[in-house]
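Good day; I would like, with your permission, to put a structural problem before you. A protein sequence and the structure tokens that stand for its backbone fold form the material at issue. Thank you for your consideration; the sequence and its tokens are set out here:
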Amino acid sequence: MSWYCDVAPNDPFHAPYHDGEYGFPVSDDRVLFERLSLEVFQAGLSWLLVLKKRAALNAAFADFDPVKVAAFDDTDRERLLADAGIIRNRLKIDATIENARRLLVIQAEHGSFAAWIDTHHPLPKEDWVKLFRKTFKFMGGEVVNEFLMSTGWLPGAHRPDCPVMERIREAGPAWGRVEG
């Protein structure tokens, strides 16, 4: 089995993400929306490409503020499709805008995206995938799995002996509450 922990060290793009973000618990809805969107943009592509384009994606999508993205219209879609700095896939762009709108509904009903996720935690991976497919657009098994691992709801982001694992455990990921 190949681990991100094996390829990330000393890489200018992978190492900061691996060491400071990947697998750490996230409760901020803007960050959760960014991570969900980045996973959508990564589908079928390399994570390195997404990391290289992350700053441009954040600029293009109003720092993934769900309220702002939910208000995007056809003019914004055309602007995004013309932006060579981002991943210009119409389906992924449309999914990101629609997912922002759906996230606002979740926030209104549950108080936050994080609270909605926590309400369903823990679930087996297959049930997470069904839930996300029912709730959001462009949700495949890998998108859902990576999103939940990267934000601390599912384990598996790091090798057990990875030095980052101790810091993640100390941060109290949701999977740690189940694991005991």
About this structure: The chain is about 65% helix and 0% strand. Residues 125 and 145 are 7 Å apart (CA to CA). The radius of gyration is 16 Å. The chain has one domain: 26-166.
